Amino acid sequence: MRLLVTGGAGFIGANFTHSWANENPGDQITVVDSLTYAGSADTLAPLGEAVELVVGDITDAALVDELVAGADAVVHFAAETHVDNSLTGPSAFVQSNLVGTFTILEAVRRHGTRLHHISTDEVYGDLPLDAPDIRFTADTPYNPSSPYSATKAGSDMLVRAWVRSFRVAATLSNCSNNFGPYQHVEKFIPRQITNLLTGRRAKLYGAGANVRDWIHVEDHNAAVRAILAGGRIGQTYLIGADCERSNLAVLQTLLEIMGHDPDDFDHVADRAGHDLRYAIDSSALREELGWAPAHTDFPAALAATVDWYRANEAWWAPLKDAVEAGYTERGQ
Ligand SMILES: NC(=O)c1ccc[n+]([C@@H]2O[C@H](COP(=O)([O-])OP(=O)(O)OC[C@H]3O[C@@H](n4cnc5c(N)ncnc54)[C@H](O)[C@@H]3O)[C@@H](O)[C@H]2O)c1
């Protein structure tokens, strides 16, 4: 298999590349990544020559065409991903998420290459806090709230249209919130872990009632591998691990794991337009492809993630001060 992974120097793409390289040592793996602030060559360094890293932009049509021509399948992770950044600078989101996905679609169309497009449950907007029986399914109407989710929604629509109009061999997946190794310290869980590891106080947006449906990155990537192997072309698969937790509950579990008092945190200004609740019904994926999450003990998976950040300070420490300065400027 000749595999092209876009965004493979970022959080989920790098975890995917590590697992794929370990499980399929004979495969040719190429990562294309523009190494924005969110990507790092260091993340792929442990893989040595098992992976070729091409530093380039997915909006570069000539480069993408050349890379897709040499691949049997493309797994498309590359995107601008941080909601807060999309509120202050949406332009990069339109470029990478919409124009970038369009560029990949045109290349896979020309070369007849299999594509799996990675997306988020945030395309569905949010759910009320007081209706626990309602969860997102593949039939839930799109209703994105932020420039991030709007551009991801648009990229999903492009993929669907390219399947229908040009018979591109693509599948899609929309996953809930991931956690695990190599996640940028700007994101909620690694931010709190590294705050505590650097002697700062943990921070909580608003009252912390907002609910996210957490999944370990390895479970997300196992689902992606299952979809690549057996997914139906044109199908959208929702990936989730039935792990709804309020931000307050996540933070208090983390404080407990790290030996702090459960009230040892600061409330900070809430995010503008903050989605209330995400929840995924992943039964279609489980029934059709036999996938199930393995990391179902959330406190244990969170404790393992804390251990990873503790052991890999050299990976995240250079990023930490600048990220916190940005949050402080926004009162968060
Ligand atoms: N993190 C989550 O909880 C989550 C949940 C569901 C879906 N997703 C989706 O998974 C994918 C990966 O998310 P992540 O959390 O790993 O993101 P990330 O921000 O950690 O990594 C994104 C990577 O894409 C690269 N990139 C960005 N723009 C690029 C461009 N124009 N050309 C080439 N490379 C570019 C960055 O350098 C970075 O390495 C995204 O498509 C995201 O929407 C993320």
TrEMBL record:
* Record has Repeat as a keyword: no
Known EC number(s)?
4.2.1.46
Single GO MF descriptor: dTDP-glucose 4,6-dehydratase activity
All residue ranges annotated as the NAD(P)-binding domain in the record: 4-295
Pfam families per UniProt: GDP_Man_Dehyd (PF16363)
Extract the InterPro entries matched here. Answer: dTDP_Gluc_deHydtase (IPR005888), NAD(P)-bd_dom (IPR016040), NAD(P)-bd_dom_sf (IPR036291)
What catalytic activity is recorded? dTDP-alpha-D-glucose = dTDP-4-dehydro-6-deoxy-alpha-D-glucose + H2O
Q: Which UniProt keywords apply?
A: Lyase, NAD
What's a BP term from Gene Ontology annotated to this protein? Answer: nucleotide-sugar metabolic process
CDD domains the record matches = dTDP_GD_SDR_e (cd05246)
**Cofactors:** NAD(+)
Q: Which family does it belong to?
A: Belongs to the NAD(P)-dependent epimerase/dehydratase family. dTDP-glucose dehydratase subfamily.
- Name-wise, this protein is dTDP-glucose 4,6-dehydratase
Source organism: Mycolicibacterium brumae
